[in-house]
Amino acid sequence: MTKAILAKAVLAGVAVLGLAACEPPSAPNAYAGEASVPAANAGGLFQQVCVVNQNQLAEAPKVLGQLPFTRNSTEDIYYHNTFNLSFKLTSQPAGAICSMVWSSTDNAGTNRATILSVAPGAVFRDVNNGLLTSAIIGAQ
């Protein structure tokens, strides 16, 4: 391999690695998918996005960029491309809040137990319109 070809290959590899650390794509009219979410998937996503990044929620968009999410640039909400699920990251004087809203294939009790198993301090709500919410406070 010549030095020029090797250099191009290295640059291409660096570009791919750079994309992995990016935030998700943005669109002013992005919206969530329509598929209801199994409780296990919701719990896994909540853990991956909110819990793992609780001490530095500013890192959560990078995680979302590695998952099938699109950021609605008008609402500043990250919508899953397939599931009826979204994340919102909000700065507050007391800290940052990472919240998730979703529609599930499982009942509220199963979802509550799943969320609390990955985040015992999370706030969980059944909004009674088919949507569930969960949130944790973290550091900005």
Order of secondary-structure elements: HEHHEEEEHEE
Helix content: 25-40%
Number of domains: 1
The secondary structure category is alpha+beta
Beta-strand content estimate: 25-35%
Which characteristics define this entry?
disordered N terminus, globular, alpha+beta, 140 residues, 7 strands
If you had to describe this structure to a student in words, what would you say it looks like?
- The protein has 140 residues and is an alpha+beta fold.
- The chain has one domain.
- It is 34% helix and 26% strand.
- It has four helices and seven strands, in the order αβααββββαββ.
- The protein has helices at residues 3-20, 39-51, 60-65, 108-118, and strands spanning 26-27, 69-72, 77-80, 85-92, 95-102, 123-126, 132-138.
- The protein has a seven-stranded mixed sheet with strand order 1-2-3-4-5-7-6.
- A hairpin with a 5-residue loop joins strand 6 (123-126) and strand 7.
- Helix 2 packs parallel to helix 4.
Condensed summary:
The chain is α+β, with helices and mostly antiparallel strands and 140 residues long.
How is the topology of this model organized?
Elements: H1 3-20, E1 26-27, H2 39-51, H3 60-65, E2 69-72, E3 77-80, E4 85-92, E5 95-102, H4 108-118, E6 123-126, E7 132-138
